[in-house]
Write a structure and sequence with these properties.
Length: 157
């Protein structure tokens, strides 16, 4: 997992200016901010709104619509478990409950030691036979109890 820059308004303004001329700039800028800082810092929202001549509410609406954007930095590792209907039907609810119990946090949260952020994701395209997940961007299909346990153990290192 890569290290992120600490939030800096000057650096944030540079990122915003770099992407503000692009089509669909709101999404592009939010993604670039998160790639740089590991999350979208709250002070960045009005900066994006001003640069794109949007209201803060419009930017906030985009931010909250997409599950990938974070309000605070992620843990050292990010474990995403597919929560789409097909994965749920194939045993995903039990695996989610197992992961929550082993990590000690509900999905959508980071462990107290900031080692693992456990997030939902909606469809990784591998749901034909069993639930799927992603650890630090690496796709893992055909999840069962042993595979989710192995992913959790890897993330907790």
């Amino acid at each position: 997992m890569s290290a992120y820059e600490p939030w800096d308004a000057v650096r944030g303004a540079e990122i915003i200016a770099e992407h503000s001329h692009l089509e669909g700039a709101t999404l592009v800028i939010l993604r670039a901010l998160q790639e740089a800082f590991g999350y979208v810092p709250e002070p960045a929202v009005p900066m994006v709104a001003e640069a794109l001549n949007l209201s803060r509410a419009e930017v906030h609406g985009v931010f909250t619509f997409y599950h990938d954007f974070r309000h605070k930095p992620a843990g050292k590792h990010v474990l995403k478990l597919c929560r789409a209907e097909a994965c749920q039907a194939a045993g995903g609810d039990a695996l989610a409950a197992r992961a929550e119990a082993k990590l000690g946090v509900a999905i959508g949260n980071t462990t107290p030691d900031e080692r693992v952020t456990f997030e939902p994701i909606y469809c990784l395209g591998l749901c034909a036979t069993a639930p799927s997940a992603m650890l630090d961007g690496r796709l893992v299909g055909r999840l069962d109890e042993a595979r989710i346990d192995a992913l959790i153990a890897e993330a907790q290192r």
